[in-house]
Specification:
This is Osmotin-like protein. The protein is of the alpha+beta class and about 260 residues long. The chain contains four helices and 15 strands.
């Protein structure tokens, strides 16, 4: 057998093993993730993996108004979050540098694993876990709000609802929670959580308040919950808001849905 034929056979065998591993572990080999910008303005989506998981799509990209971007989702267990950066300005003198009014990840276009500055609406995921290839997902306003967003699964089985926050909370955000850009006199670009605004242990559910018994809803978290009941709004909010959908073909994160 020639060396080229040997390499071809080895490549085919490797592909077959990968496919068998994926199928026997329940994950769909054609799983897709899509980020949709339905807003009338551009956004800069960002993706941050939890510790130990790979960065997807280099961690961030530009998405023009009324456009979308689809990419292959992870074939094995993955956990992380997706959010949108808004009001971003690129630097002509420093390629790859990006300064954003909300969700900024250290001034970079490609976040490469870095988190975003609050306030920011977050889509949180734990994909391909359990023997039924479960994908868990929720929209969190624990870190505040900057843009309406929903998560929409397609072709999954079991409990697969559309969840999120369709309301524009910037228009109704209490004055004490408002983030303005430019600071002080610009338009409202974000709505802070009580934790971000006041930094107390009680509102941040930390130290002695870091348990389901002591971490309780506040007037600030209730503002978010009343407007967007299908979201998590404080540290120990109801775990039933995390939905588990078996083997979805696609997961869409839709901004301004």
């Amino acid at each position: 057998m020639s060396s080229s034929s040997s390499l071809l056979s080895l490549s085919c065998f490797s592909l077959l093993l990968t496919l068998i591993f994926t199928i026997t572990n329940g994950a769909r080999p054609d799983f897709i993730m899509t980020v949709v910008n339905n807003c009338p303005y551009p956004i800069w989506p960002a993706i941050q993996p939890n510790t130990g998981f790979p960065v997807l799509e280099r961690g961030g990209f530009h998405l023009d108004k009324l456009s979308h971007r689809s990419f292959p989702g992870p074939a094995q267990h993955w956990a992380g979050r997706v959010w949108a950066r808004t009001g971003c300005t690129a630097s002509a003198s420093a390629p790859g540098h990006l300064s954003c009014a909300t969700g900024d990840c250290g001034g970079r276009l490609e976040c490469a694993g870095a988190g975003g500055a609050p306030p920011a609406s977050l889509a949180e995921f734990s994909l391909h876990h359990g023997h039924k290839d479960q994908s868990s997902y929720t929209v969190s306003l624990v870190d505040g709000f900057n843009i309406p967003m929903t998560i929409t699964p397609h072709e999954g089985q079991g409990n697969c609802p559309v969840v999120g926050c369709r309301a524009d909370l910037l228009a109704t955000c209490p004055q004490t929670l408002q983030l303005r850009s430019p600071a002080g006199h610009g338009p409202v670009v974000g709505c802070k959580s009580g934790c971000e605004a006041f930094r107390t242990d009680e509102l941040c559910c930390r130290n002695q308040y870091n348990s389901p018994q002591t971490c309780r809803p506040s007037t600030y978290s209730e503002f978010f919950k009343k407007a967007c009941p299908a979201t998590v709004t404080y540290g120990h909010d109801s775990p039933s808001l995390t939905h588990e959908c078996s083997s979805p073909r696609e997961l869409k994160v839709i901004f301004c849905h």
